[in-house]
Amino acid sequence: MDENGSLDEVGWGRDLPLRFALVSEEWDGERTVWARCVDADGLFTDRAAFRERLTLLGCAPTGRLLKAAERCAGYEPVPFGELHLMVGDVDAEDPYDYVYCELDDVVIIGSRAGTDDPTLLDLVVECVVTDPPPFHRKEPARADIGLVNGTSGRSLGRCRRVDGLYRARLAPARPVRLIGCEPSPNLVRRLIRPRQGGDNLQLWFLDRTGRPISVEEHIRVEADECRPSALGGALIDVTLKDGLFRRLLPPPAARPVWDAWHEGPPRERNEWARFPSEGRSEWLRFTPVRPGPEDPGAVCEMDGRYVTDIPGLHCAIGEAVCGTGYQWYQCWNALRGCQCGGEVPRVPFTLIWHDADVARQALAGVSVDTDGELSYFDAVVPFLERMGVTVVLR
User: Fold this and answer.
1) Starting at the edge strand that comes first in sequence, how are the strands of the sheet with 349-354 ordered?
2) What SS3 class is residue 333?
3) 252, 250, 241, 255: which is closest to 174 by C-alpha?
């Protein structure tokens, strides 16, 4: 810790690897290490356990949602991705008083004529509700629901009700077990004399030098069990019964990515390529962001051999434009219609995209533009060109 109280790295004098640290942060920014840990269990969860089935009743879909509904009418499940809802109350005095909800990993599994109005559609979807309605809000008797293309604000139509949206969603208890924990006096005192409701701390994931790679902002320190660790050396294993505050933790496919980054930043390009799509998304959580080339007329070579999904595209273009282990500062939600329109690079540059046909074929069935007219590949190339990038496909 430096003279101003900021914590740059965590270390200990043991032969065992150090992967995690429990850290408290005071109102003035001063940080204190409560524990150093060899490992932690309970940080990953299968998102399949959170999938739900909802029915969008009385839909008038447009754009890519309408095209997906038409494809699904042939009894073909259609992966859709993100869908956001703006739930308004027709009878409310304030027309701007609405509830905003987010659905992720949406798959449309049914499309039929509306029960109440056959000119409309009822769409059955399976999804993960990542941002449900607040528990204190009741379902409107008469709703007007805007269907939005992700975070862009672009409309995909409207519906009258979402069956199954307003219900209690109690996240199952996922305790976190700190393995091989070296407690500080602060943690020892709290284990001996617990505080009602526990203490809210940060959980830092560290590289092998002790520097933080990622920080989970809130973990409740309220011990459910404490015992001597099998790792010995006066270390203990502590189970925190409430775990992290996040409703959805990283998937199991993320663990190998964490292990890779624990060893340090990547030294060669395409180290992300060995991971599945979920792992590649997690990889992007660790990669620092850069704004792109500084020299006008720079030529960036992009290795497209492993661009088989959207996260892979973002990993590959980040390394081409910004260097190994980095991602390019760009708003990819602009492809969904985000009002920012995209981040113009500080200087024009040329991107030579090698093996572009890999992405062209892999992303042929993936569309995120509001109208649903273009594949992701066919949308991203003109988008880059609008941003001032000269794209050369090879």
Assistant:
1) 298-303, 349-354, 389-393
2) helix
3) 241
**Amino acid in position 122:** D
Cα 131 to Cα 41, 128, 135, 159, 244: the distances in Å are 25, 9, 11, 18, 17
Q: In the predicted model, what is the mean pLDDT of residues 300-317?
A: 98
Residue 80 and residue 140 in contact, taking contact as beta carbons nearer than 8 Å: no
Instruction: Give 247's pLDDT tier (boundaries 50, 70, 90).
Output: confident
Give the C-alpha distances (Å, rounded to integers) separating 110 from 49, 65, 121, 170, 222: 21, 13, 10, 27, 44
Amino acid identity of residue 45, one-letter, is T
Q: What is the mean pLDDT of residues 112-138?
A: 94
**Ramachandran angles phi, psi of 282, nearest 5°:** -65, -35
Question: What is d(CA 85, CA 373) in angstroms, rounded to the nearest whole number?
Answer: 22
pTM attached to this predicted model: 0.91
Tell me if 290 sits within 8 A of 250, measured CB to CB.
no
Residue 299 has pLDDT above 70, yes or no: yes
Taking residues 360-372, report their average pLDDT. Answer: 94
Q: Which two tokens stand for residue 5?
A: 């109280």
Spatial separation of the C-alpha atoms in residues 272 and 327, rounded to whole Å = 12
353 burial level (CB within 10 Å; 0-12, 13-18, 19+): buried
Q: Please say whether the dihedral angle defined by the alpha carbons of residues 366, 368, 372 and 378, taken in this order, is positive or negative.
A: negative
127 confidence band (pLDDT: 50, 70, 90): very high
Sequence-distant (6+) residues with CB within 8 A of 127 are 51, 52, 54, 83, 103, 104, 105, 106, 107
Average pLDDT over all residues of the chain:
92
pLDDT band at 77 (very low <50, low <70, confident <90, very high): very high
